[in-house]
Amino acid sequence: MFALAMLPVRGGLAQAAVDVSVSVPPPDLPVYDQPPLPGDGYLWTPGYWAWNPDNQDYYWVPGTWVMAPEADYLWTPGYWAVSGALFLWQPGYWGPRVGFYGGVDYGYGYGGHGYQGGYWQGGHVFYNRSVNNLANARVTNVYNKAVTDNVTVGRVSYNGGDGIQAQPNSEERAAGHDRHIGASPAQQQQTVQARNDPAQHFNRNQGKPPVAATPRPGFRAGTSPNGVPAPTTQRPPLSSPSARPPSHPVEPPHPPARPAEPPRSP
Question: Which of 76, 134, 246, 264 makes a 20 to 30 Å CA pair with 162?
Answer without folding.
Answer: 76
